[in-house]
Design a protein that fits this description.
By secondary structure, the chain is mainly α. It is built from 17 helices and six strands. Helix content is about 45%, strand content about 5%. A hairpin with a 6-residue loop joins strand 1 and strand 2.
C-alpha cells in the first residue's frame, strides 16, 4: 500500500496523468473538480488570457511559497516553448493532442533580398483538409487570413484554442475581409528562433517582468526605461517616453488601464525582430496571402502605373491597411487578390476620431519622395507582420 501511494504521488507531482486517465476510463467528458485538482501543482490549461486570470486568482488567494515558485517556473517554460501547452495539461476525454511548436532557424540566404515581383501575381489557395483532423468538409472549414491552413471550429475547440466568445469571432470573421488568424499566425512570438527567444527571456528576467501577467502604464514605462538604459547606457529621453506611452495606448485599445500579456509579448517579439534581423530576412517571413495583399495595395496606390508611389501614400497605407485589420469592415466573400487598401473615407478608417487625428499630415517634400515596390515592401514589412494577431491592439504603432 505504501508503494502504491508513493507511485501515485510521484505521478501527480510530475504530470497528473492518473487523473486524466481515470476520467477517460470512466467515460466522463466534463469533470470540473478533476480539472481543478490537476491545476493545483502549477500546471494550467487553456489560452494565455485564462492563464493570466488564473494566476491573478491564485495570487489573491495567497498561495504558499512552493506553489508560487512552481507556477513561475511553469510560466517561464510556457514562454520558452511559445505558449506551449503540454498534452498532459488537457483532459484526455474528447481532446486532441496539441501540436509541438517548433521554433524556426535562420538560414544562410535569409539576409539576401527575396525576389517578390510586382507584375507576377501569386495564386493563393487554401488547403483542402483541416490542419488538425485532416478531413475535408468543404464549406465548414475556416481559413486563416495569413497562411493557407484551414480548420474546423470543433477541432479548434477540442484543441483548447477556441473558448467562449472566440468561437463566434472565428465563425463571423473567417470568411470576411477582416479575416481570422490561426493559432500559429496569431502568435508573433513563434517567429523568434531559440536564440532570439532566450535573449528576450533574459531581458524580461533582468527587468523583473513576470510572464503571463498584465502590465500597467507604470510597469510598461519602467520596463522601457530599463531596456533603454541597458542598450544605450543612458536614460530615456522625454520624447522617447512619450512615444512609449503612445505605444501603451495602442496596446490598450479598450482603455482597461493595462495591457494583456499576449499583446505585450507580441509587441516585444516584433520589436526584437526589427532589432536583430535585416529587412530582407523579415520579408522572407511574409506569406503568399500577405504578399498578395501588399501587391494589391501598391497597385491601387500607383494610379499612373509607373511603378512608383509618393512617400505620403506609403505612409497612409501604413497607418490604415497595414497597422491592423479593422473589425468594422463589412462582411463580404471577396477574393484575397481583390483586397486593396482602405480609403480614408471608409467606415473602417474613420472608426474613431483618434485614428483620424493620428493620420500623418503629408508635406510637399514627403510627397515628392518616390517609393518603388521593393522599398514599399521593406518599409511596411514590420507593420504587415504586426497586423497578424486577432487582438484589437496595435502591436506596432506607426510613427506620426
Amino acid at each position: 500500500m505504501g508503494v502504491l501511494m508513493s507511485r501515485r504521488q510521484t505521478v501527480e507531482k510530475v504530470q497528473k496523468v492518473s487523473l486524466a486517465v481515470s476520467a477517460f476510463k470512466d467515460g466522463l467528458r466534463e469533470q470540473p473538480s478533476t480539472r481543478r485538482r490537476a491545476e493545483v501543482g502549477g500546471t494550467r490549461r487553456g489560452t494565455m488570457e485564462q492563464e493570466v486570470q488564473e494566476g491573478e486568482e491564485e495570487a489573491s488567494s495567497g498561495p504558499s511559497q512552493p506553489e508560487e515558485s512552481s507556477a513561475s517556473k511553469a510560466a517561464w517554460e510556457r514562454l520558452r516553448d511559445g505558449r506551449g501547452v503540454e498534452p498532459e495539461e488537457f483532459d484526455r476525454a474528447n481532446r486532441f493532442t496539441p501540436p509541438a511548436f517548433i521554433r524556426p532557424k535562420r538560414e544562410l540566404h535569409d539576409d539576401e533580398p527575396p525576389n517578390i515581383s510586382l507584375e507576377q501575381r501569386e495564386q493563393v489557395l487554401n488547403d483542402e483538409m483541416c490542419e488538425i483532423c485532416e478531413v475535408w468538409t468543404a464549406e465548414s472549414l475556416f481559413p486563416c487570413r495569413v497562411c493557407s491552413r484551414v480548420y474546423h471550429d470543433g477541432c479548434l475547440r477540442r484543441m483548447g484554442y477556441l473558448q467562449n466568445d472566440s468561437t463566434v469571432e472565428v465563425t463571423e470573421t473567417a470568411h470576411t475581409e477582416t479575416g481570422w488568424s490561426c493559432y500559429y499566425c496569431d502568435n508573433l512570438n513563434l517567429l523568434l528562433t531559440e536564440e532570439e527567444m532566450y535573449s528576450l527571456m533574459e531581458t524580461l528576467r533582468q527587468c523583473k517582468i513576470i510572464p503571463e501577467t498584465c502590465l500597467t502604464l507604470d510597469d510598461f514605462l519602467h520596463y522601457k526605461h530599463l531596456v533603454h538604459k541597458q542598450q544605450f547606457e543612458q536614460p530615456m529621453a522625454e520624447a522617447q517616453e512619450e512615444q512609449a506611452a503612445l505605444q501603451f495606448s495602442a496596446l490598450d485599445p479598450n482603455k482597461k488601464g493595462h495591457i494583456e500579456w499576449h499583446d505585450f509579448l507580441s509587441h516585444e517579439s516584433i520589436q526584437l525582430l526589427q532589432k536583430l534581423r535585416p529587412q530582407n530576412a523579415l520579408l522572407r517571413l511574409l506569406t503568399a496571402k500577405e504578399r498578395e495583399r501588399a501587391r494589391a495595395a501598391f497597385l491601387a496606390l500607383d494610379q499612373d502605373g509607373n511603378g512608383f508611389i509618393g512617400d505620403g501614400e506609403c505612409r497612409r497605407a501604413r497607418h490604415t491597411w497595414f497597422r491592423k485589420h479593422q473589425k468594422e469592415t463589412p462582411s463580404c466573400n471577396v477574393s484575397i487578390s481583390h483586397v486593396g487598401p482602405m480609403s480614408e473615407s471608409s467606415p473602417a478608417s474613420s472608426s474613431s476620431g483618434k485614428s483620424q487625428e493620428k493620420t500623418p499630415l503629408v508635406t510637399e517634400q514627403e510627397e515628392a519622395r518616390l517609393v518603388d515596390w521593393p522599398g514599399f515592401l521593406r518599409e511596411n514589412v514590420a507593420y504587415i507582420l504586426a497586423a497578424r494577431p486577432n487582438s484589437a491592439a496595435l502591436h506596432l504603432q506607426p510613427p506620426p
